[in-house]
Specification:
There is one protein chain. The protein has 5 helices and 6 strands. The chain is an alpha+beta fold. The protein folds into 2 domains: 87 residues, no CATH class; 80 residues, Uridine Diphospho-n-acetylenolpyruvylglucosamine Reductase, domain 3 (2-Layer Sandwich), CATH 3.30.465. Strands 1, 2, 3, 4, 5 and 6 form a 6-stranded antiparallel beta sheet that branches. Helix 1 packs across helix 3 and helix 1 crosses helix 4. The longest helix is centred in the first third of the chain and has 35 residues.
Length: 209
């Protein structure tokens, strides 16, 4: 039974690790750019601007809020040719104007809707593939929980991000099991895990002191 469990765990560890490798690579490369607050080519992306007249606006759009307003605005975005995740909605009540950033990996868009004139002004900027990796890294975060993941591709990506975490937990636990079974590797494994633990605690101490 132990030999069978070991064989199954070893195969799952290997093949799930290979499946997970591209996702880990995306998070690894993007965190480098997050730490250094710089992505190649993001500053000089191509930009275009256009205006769409006679936009059909949902009834009482200026009185909606939260998720209801975001869902109503998805139909407006389809009319003006914009796709992506709505980051937030800024409502200027006096001017009767809605402003919202719309993000898609590799593209940032700002949509301004004049509720009185039923007109939309759109500014779109291409940010490139490296910035897209950063956007994917940050997308499943806890900010604006009420409205986030309002674009289907981002919702699907959040499922993959969750799956990556669960698979990493499995790989960690199964790796410890596979190491523990191999008696010849126990000493060096203990040394490496101890070194990793000391390094981690040292970094935490340096950050919070």
């Amino acid at each position: 039974m132990n030999n069978r469990l070991y064989a199954i765990t070893r195969d799952l560890h290997l093949y799930l690790g290979l499946f997970l490798a591209p996702f880990v690579l995306v998070f690894s490369v993007s965190v480098f750019f997050l730490v250094h607050a710089w992505t190649p080519g993001a500053e000089g992306g191509a930009e275009r601007h256009w205006v769409v007249e006679s936009v059909r606006l949902p009834a009482e759009l200026d009185s909606l809020s939260g998720r209801a307003r975001v869902e109503a605005l998805r139909g407006v975005l389809a009319q003006v040719g914009v796709t992506g995740e709505i980051g937030f909605v800024e409502h200027n009540v006096k001017a009767r104007r809605l402003t919202m950033p719309v993000m898609a990996p590799g593209r940032d868009t700002v949509v301004q809707i004049d509720l009185a004139a039923s007109k939309a002004e759109i500014t779109e900027r291409q940010t490139g593939v490296w910035d897209a990796l950063v956007a994917l890294h940050k997308a499943p975060g806890p900010h604006l929980v009420e409205i986030r993941m309002n674009w289907l591709p981002m919702r699907v990506w959040s499922w993959f991000a969750d799956g990556t975490v669960y698979l990493l937990l499995f790989l960690s636990v199964s790796g410890i099991y596979l190491w523990a079974v191999l008696r010849a590797e126990r000493r060096i494994g203990l040394v490496l895990m101890g070194g990793g633990l000391v390094t981690f605690l040292g970094v935490v101490y340096a950050v919070i002191r």
